[in-house]
Amino acid sequence: MNAAEVRWLRADLRARRAQALLTVLAVAGIVTALITAATLLEDGTNPWRGLFARGNGAHVWIHTKDTPDPAVLRGLDGVTDIAGPYRSAPATLVLDGKKIPVTLREMSATLPAVGRPLVREGAWLDPRVPSGVVVERSYARTLGLRAGTAFTVIGLNGATHALKVAGLAESGDQGFYPEWTPGLAWTLAGTLDQIEPKLGRSESVTGLRLADSGDTSLVVQRAITTLGGQVQRVSTWREVEQSMELDNRLLGVLLALFGAAGLVAAVLAIANATGGRVLTQRRDIATLKSLGFTRRQVVRMLVIEHGSLGLAGIVVGVLCGRLITVYALAETVVVPLSSLPLLAIALGTAAVVLVAVWLPAWRGGRTPPLPAVPAPPRGHLSRVARLAFLVRLPPALVLGARDAFTRRLPAFLTAFGLAIPMMMITIGLGYWATLDDFRSHPEQVGQAAALTVRPASLTSEEAQRLALADPDVVAAFPGAEVDALVPGQTRTVRARAYGTVSDPYPFTVVDGRLFRDRGEAVAGQGLLDLLHVSVGDRVRLTIGGTPLIVRIVGRVLEPEQDGEVLSVPLDALAPKDALPPQYYGLVLREGADAGAVRSRLQGEGLEVSQVVNPADRLAVIRVIIVGLVVVLALIGLANLLTASAVGLRDHAQDLAVLKAMGLTPRQVAATLVTGTGLLVVLGVAAGAGAGALVSAGLIDLQGAASGMGAGIGRAPGPATLLLAMATAVGAALLVALIPARRAARARVPVAPR
Amino acid sequence: MSAAAPAVRAVNLVKIYQTGGLPVPAVRGVDLTVEAGEFVAIMGPSGSGKSTLVHMLGGLDTRTSGEIWIEGTRADTLSESGWALLRRRNIGFVFQFFNLVDNMTVADNVELPALLGGSAPRHARERREYLLGELGLTGKADAAPAQLSGGEQQRVALARALANHPRVLLADEPTGNLDSRNTRDVLRLLGEVHRQGQTIVLVTHDARVAGLADRVVTLLDGQIVDDGAVGLPRRRTKGGPGDVVELRG
Question: Could you tell me which chain A residue has the CA closest to the CA of B121?
């Protein structure tokens, strides 16, 4: 580049620092969103892959009643090695008075070859310290356990045992706590025998390592056939992987959607800004050309000036994206985005930005070298203006309405450039409304019961009586959860018996109806997808060895287990599975404080847990929405500044005429503000309308993809929407007012400059 | 490029604008030769085609037909960028509305052509300091053009036009937007530059301004109706009726 070009670039950038900064920030925000989205979507945040590879994990885990013959399993076609069989027993961990279920699994002091837990803190099991156990890390973190923490464990027979955390380990064998319950702890065989002496109350767990992970379903079928009725539960690597990724995936899709739409908006803003700048600079460009700048030099200068802002934004965005994945997502083990998608995002954005900049720059290069007085745009009275005339609006409004549409394409681009950010903001508000709805009306997302009580040491009748005695409890629905085997499926699904045929639990039925008969069931979207069935189909399953055929008569919103839950009435189960009920779901009086009820019932000796609202798990979405709204507002602001600069330039000549005609400065300012404001109102209204139309559907799509099911989406409330529109229009008018007032008050030059 | 070649030569130059499909002739067959070191004023009423003529001579506007020779080289067949390169080296422009780049300081405005021509920044700065010093603007080097008065802006524009030692200085109504005091200053400067051997073609409709030139060409309806030397006695004294008119001072 020539020194003269550099000199001009520097001067021009210095003259429009704020606008330049705005461009950089807008692009940086969008690139950050894209990179974070790609990281989340690429599974960089899914630690399963690393854990499985490093621990030489087992693809399939089979839970059986008795210890299977390892040789038989090892001999199965497709199995290369096995882990275990390990004895595994349920127990209750007591910590600071809280009782939390835990699974104790025996393991040897030497780490096994397959399904090897990875010790992260402390040490592995040591035969010299029989009371030492190794706790799964996510479980330990939730409970606040560290290496060296002492705790007690109550076996099923009621005996207490003092144990100590020897170390914390990670494992790809099961998902993280609390998504995957109960938590896992490894003990030495002797320790487990002490805590749970009865073999009948424990199960046997065997891991199969396969030659080809694609054969999983086949091998599982073979194992189930071979082991006969022994199999209680099967889990595969797919579930583990899925359980570790799901929330991030939803966030990733959300971010990607916003990022992509934001990129369009940002590119439009850059193109608008460059185009507007070139338009207002035509005189300067002509002067440069009269000095001897060539067309190519002019184009090069403009592309470099505006493109470098975009590129700076990309660099900042890449840095921010890295920082966010390292710090904001510190909870999960993040593998930074691999270089290919990173390059794709950076180069793709760069290419799009350069095209957006090059077009107006090319037009700028074609400016004739004759520094002519800027020709006013070919004006014609638009229909709106004619209408304004007819209904005798104040002159400022009529003139403003005329000005707004004199240049059709820029007018459209301005309105469109504001509509896209506004649409995305509206969709973000839709997410917000959906989350609010989760919280304020949990019964509408299948969480009518705010508390579940387990009888603990009491009988279930007593527990029900005690619960119903509480003034805030309206109803108590008996429930039981069992694992069901579905023929042809490689894994167990959750079957939940909740309420009875005559007194069903108030599920949120979205499609079809609630069960009315024992042979009927309702299911979440996740289950329908998993089994490839739809409402009206029959499903055959085996629950605790008893075959059961049910017809799915409705789809419910199912916030748990990725929606992979089949709900049946309690009477449908065999009495051995259903009686006594495992727990009661308590529906509280409206406005009751669940926490207070919980502590009251706990005082009565019941084991009470509060249902986790899905909104709590998705709370981070709110942070993302706020961040994105800021970025989108910046983009809208950039568009607005361009529009108002071009409007001023187009009408600088008119100002003298208007004043000569007798318009007061206030009227002149009103004319200029109306010109921009009309486009703002149009863009904002169109964007908000489109956003309100699509937001519920879009959220439903994501709800369906996450397994919870369509039917959760809410459009933002009319009050919220109006407030958002009013804020956007108000802010826009304020921004437009400042230059308009300045222009209206300035002494109008009769000759150009 | 022989030494004898005129600085600017136009042969049967024609410019026809197409306005709404109708041909509007602005310049109709002008033959003009400006010798090196000559100061030519082009006069004529509004719409006589004088600005169009000088714009064509500088390549800012395209000709419809005819030939333009600058320093013995044919220029009318040049491409847009060819003209740009030619302007960089050989032609300086001064406009009625100064046309300074608003975002740049006075110093940057003046250094721009030199830098564009490939001078080292140090040389460009020295030249700028010299020119601003000559024009009495040393103190204004870091000011923005908008902070200057009209006369000062036009002096900066003149400095910018002279930054590259152009062979020809084309001035289009340089005093058209100035009051009489500033007009006098600018004209004095033009006269001094001319005395140092600068070729100047100046467009004006002000007889007093034209009176400063060696030769006045009068245009009417795109054609030269009068072309004659003004016998001002100050330099090449010839004596004669021109002596009566002494307007400067």
Answer: A3
